[in-house]
Fold this protein.
Amino acid sequence: MNRNIFLPGLKDVKINKVETCEHSIHLYVETPAKPHRCPRCGAEVRKIHDYRVQKIQHFKWFERPTVLFYRKRRYTCQTCGKRFAEENPFVERYQVESGRECAKHSCQNVQRPGFPVWGLGFDGDPAF
C-alpha cells in the first residue's frame, strides 16, 4: 500500500522510512534524481559519484523533535571532473538544521470542537 503524507518544508521529497524513537521521530529522505549544472564549467551533469547521509534537525512533529537522515547525492562532471553535492530545498551547505521556512511550521496535536481526537496545527502560514 502506498501512503502519501505532506510535511511542511519537505516538498518533492521521498520519505523512504519513518522510525519512532523514544523521544524523537527519524525520517529517512531523499530527493528525486535530476540533472544539475556543474558549478565550475556549467555543463549539464547526470553522473552520480556517490551518496552521503546528512543528519538534519527539522521542526517538531506531534510535539517530538524530528531528525532527517537525508541521502544526499554527489555528482561528478564528465567535462572538468568537479565533484559537487546536489541542490535541495530544505538545507544549505554545511547546515545541520532545516531552513527558516521549515522552522516556522510545527505540527502538533490539537483538540478543538470539530476535530477528531487529534489533528494538525501549524505555527505560521498553513498554506506553505
